Amino acid sequence: MEKEIKKISETKIEIKFVFAWGEFKDYYEQALSKLNQGITLDGFRPGKAPKEVAEQKFGEARILEDAVDLILKDKYPAFVIENNLEVIGQPKVEILKLARGNDFECKVIAEVLPEIKLPDYAKIAQGVKKTEVVVEEKDLTEALEWIKKSRASFEDLDRPAQKEDMVEVNYHSPQIENGKNFEDKFFLSQGKLVPGFEEKIEGMKAGEEKEFEITFPSDYFKPELAGQTVTFNLKVEKVQKANYPELNDELAKTLGDFENLDALKKNVMEGIQQEKGQESNQKRREEILDKIIQQSELAIPETLLTQEKARIIHQLEHDVQEQLGLSWEEYANQNFKDEKELNEKMHKQAVDRIKSYLIVRAIGEKEQVEVSDIEIEQACQEFLSRYAKKPAVEKEIDLERLKGYYKGVIFNDKVFQKLDSF
Questions:
Q1: CA dihedral over 218, 220, 221, 222, signed as positive or negative
Q2: What are phi and psi of 176, to 5 degrees?
Q3: Which domains does the chain have, with CATH numbers?
């Protein structure tokens, strides 16, 4: 076998293969044998027809084509590994010479990961200063207020609803989802529903019903309702007052292993400190990576770009359906002027993600970052332990895919730990 590699661009190479007939002939014979297997020809048992008869049946062109597939499936992967080529996607094969009794020649066009010219990333990381994390008194106050509200008890009221009351309602409209009935529970005046809706509830008592109209904002996220006047039928099921517990030692003891309120406050402060520290660290890491990307040189392989754009759109379609209850068409019409704007935004997101991936990978290789099987196994076991009592869910988990995911997560974290250390 003769071969020659030529660089076409930063992300494409051309490999020319020449296989002497003596070597290619073995694959020709294999292709003929495979075609012959299981095929019944008149007067012969399956797979036992003489070679000459089988060749006449299938034709020389068909056998040669199958032989090409066999030899490339055998030789191309081995060649890639032997030459440390980082190919991606499916290669394109062009036949240059193919005839029985002659050398077989072809060229393979393959996409490869680009060479990346990294800047002095250690210097860049040193230049991004760490932000001092400060926990203010208002942070503690807000956290304690949330704790108080989470432990509220509710008292049914026999009076008209007013602001700050908790109301439980059900409502429907013939103009929304074919009159589907909705049940909801919320504090009045917190702006949970479309503007003007909650004001219609004020003054109503438990058990009362009302019909009213609401005009939706012109920029409402569901285009079919934007600017429309809709009639609702609503019934108030409950009007309640929220009773909040007093922040004292007794409450603290019910929330965990706390001796008194001061111990609870100390624990909350430490939690806020840790959370703010993680947020600050994440922002710094993002800033470091952004600066490295800006000063790096790399080309984006078309295959990676196409695959990443498809992944982004697929995930977005899922999120839109699950979180907003919209079809992809509704969301796209609302958020993008046209197909061109959609493609431009998806393209930019895909490019940013690919650059981040390739640069983190390149830094990791340069710094000889490694992830051990033990580390991957520990992370997977920690994840699977959450489903120990849910065998049906655990059964659906693709373990190999999970391992691949955690290998990437641990690798990325180690790279950023290295950047943090500069």
A1: negative
A2: -125, 120
A3: 2-112 (3.30.70.1050), 153-243 (3.10.50.40), 281-421 (1.10.3120.10)
What is the reported pTM?
Answer: 0.78
Kindly give, in sequence order, each residue whose CB lies less than 8 Å from that of residue 158, ignoring residues fewer than 6 positions away. Answer: 205, 206
**Residue in the structure block whose two tokens are 């009213």:** 212
**Residues 139, 142: Cα–Cα separation, whole Å:** 5
User: Tens digits of per-residue pLDDT, 133-170?
Assistant: 999 999 999 999 999 999 999 999 999 999 999 999 99
Only one residue has tokens 């990443």, namely: 308
